[in-house]
Specification:
13 helices, alpha/beta, 3-stranded mixed sheet, 13 strands, Rossmann fold, 322 residues, 7-stranded parallel sheet
Length: 322
């Protein structure tokens, strides 16, 4: 009898790619993997195929292709990427397409990579934070949180996987330490002394695999994951050790962060404000012990920095001249 099949959406991305590799690397070979991607001819897809994955073309905006990708699957990993299009409505539509397809195909275990709908904590328009896109506090959170209902309403057997801040944002999203005018480095995190749950993007997939490996035990449950909970000052200390020079924690206000003006700055400012104001429950929902039960090799921030410090796009120190 062949192993159960897991359909992995976003299989060439950070989360899905980590899960696909975790399935393929499992010496017990408990599952097969259908690696879903919009770019089956891309290099990442070719690598997965060479490792034994069934590479499958599909697009989350094409409901028919999503249904085909779900056909015959025992499990499915569902994920969306807000930052490709900046539209929570599009995310909700994509999640709904996956939920409909999973229900129709009789998928027995879906892991939906999600985040909190912050409107359950802060009513838009209450004055606690600016309202964005007409009805959201944190669009890239609220859309995913609202989409949870798509799976619940169709009674899809689902585990809600709540992820954390990617430390990889320091490489790819412009959040690395930056040079001040005096040449010193500063790391900006507008959260005061509140702790930020963070994780290496590469560890999310193995955590998701841990959920699938536990099976029906976690169906209907919410699982939050993080590698560490650190304040901005603690992250700056670790960055200083890794980079070999002092790094200050630049604790600006969320308003000042939003005023930086890059695409999504207002969304991220509200996100950091939410994490600061609801630190206790936000951290509690992302248990470090539970994360390590799912993935014993989950990295700390220091371990992640040791592997990735050379990839941080930090401006070199100026060389003094005579």
């Amino acid at each position: 009898m062949s192993q159960p099949l897991i359909t992995v959406f976003g299989a060439t991305g950070a989360q899905g790619g980590g899960l696909a590799r975790a399935i393929l690397d499992d010496p017990q070979r408990r599952f097969r993997v259908r690696a879903v991607t919009r770019k089956p001819e891309g290099e990442a897809a070719k690598v997965l195929a060479s490792l034994g994955a069934d590479v499958f073309p599909a697009d989350l905006d094409d409901a028919a292709s999503v249904s085909r990708a779900m056909s015959g699957a025992h499990g499915a990993f569902c994920v969306t990427n807000f930052w490709e299009h900046l539209s929570p409505e599009r995310e909700i539509a994509q999640a709904s397409a996956m939920a409909r397809a999973a229900s129709a195909a009789g998928v027995r275990h879906v892991v939906w990579s999600t985040l909190e709908d912050t409107r359950d904590f802060v009513k838009p328009g209450s004055g606690a934070m600016p309202v964005l896109l007409g009805k959201y506090n944190v669009p890239h959170y609220d859309g995913k949180g609202e989409a949870n209902r798509a799976f619940a309403e169709r009674r899809v057997p689902t585990t809600l996987l709540y992820t954390s801040f990617y430390w990889d944002n320091l490489i790819h999203f412009g959040m690395q330490p930056r040079r001040r005018q005096d040449g010193s480095l500063a790391f900006t995190l507008p959260m005061g002394n509140a702790k930020l749950p963070g994780i290496a993007a590469a560890d999310i997939g193995p955590c998701a695999y841990g959920v699938f490996a536990r099976g029906e035990e976690l169906v209907g449950k919410s699982v939050g994951i993080a590698g560490e909970h650190l304040t901005g000052a603690q992250m700056a200390e670790q960055l200083a050790l890794a980079l070999g020079e002092p790094v200050a924690h630049d604790d600006i206000s969320p308003e000042a962060y939003a005023a930086l003006g890059f695409p999504g700055a207002d969304d991220l400012a509200n996100m950091f404000r939410f994490k600061r104001d609801f630190e206790r429950c936000y951290c509690a929902s992302r248990s470090l012990d539970c994360t390590r039960e799912l993935h014993p090799k989950v990295q700390t921030f220091a371990a992640w920095l040791a592997r990735n410090k050379s990839r941080l796009p930090v401006e070199p120190r100026a060389v003094a001249t005579a």
